[in-house]
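Weekly modeling sync, notes
Attendees: S.R. (lead), two postdocs, one rotation student

Agenda item 3: backlog of single-chain predictions. S.R. asked that every request posted to the team notebook include the full sequence so nobody has to chase files. The rotation student volunteered to paste the first one in as an example of the format we agreed on. Action items at the bottom.

Example entry:
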Amino acid sequence: MSRLPVIRGLADERLRLQIDGMDLYAACPNHMNTPLSYLDPGQVERVRVWAGIAPVSAGGDAIGGVVAAETPAPTFAAPGQTGTRGEVGVSARSNGHAWGQWGVRGQLSYLKGRNRSTGDGLYQILPLNARVSLTHRAGAWDSAVELVAVRAKTDVSQVRNEVRTPGFALLNVRTAYRLGRGKLELGIDNLFDRLYYLPTGGAYVGQGTTMTNPTPPNVPQWGTAVPGPGRTVWVTYQQTF
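Predicted structure, as returned to the notebook:
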């Protein structure tokens, strides 16, 4: 807490300081160690302040006012039970970018199209999609973890027999190392080898009933959606002159 609270320009002995209703005074004659300096902010439930003349219940003989801090009431386990309490925290510190530089990049895209005459959806419209990348740079290394998410494509062009596709999410990773004027880069797309279908990939007409008459029931009539690439490992090298 504050070592020297001030109310309307008045401080020190002109204020009354209380903790849980008890008046506490500085332990040092020159008033350097005020009572509130020993109180952990995490142990404060609330602080009440009276500016100027305070009520008698708050010790109203102070000229400047009263600062009353209250700590939470202690908790006890019920009879026959064990009381438990935990706390989880994370602490990180870097001196001179010892862990490199971290960053976050994001991209959100949404497009809506419709034929105003027929009310039909337009062809090859990509649904809501987003990309979020966590980047890290340390020395000659440059790495990133990228999440790609695409919503299900349900708004399709009926007149073109466009195929609906489900939503999906992919995880891509890459790392690059700079070698003077060159850069060697290694990456893995679709790290978990998820099966997904391209919203704007058209239709695979080799499967379905495109060449069958009459059309069998429960068989895709206009082909099936084209699946996207599975897990892909790639390596590139770039050289500038």
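Discussion: group reviewed the output briefly. Residues 101-239 form one domain.
Action items: rotation student to repeat for the remaining queue; S.R. to check formatting next week.
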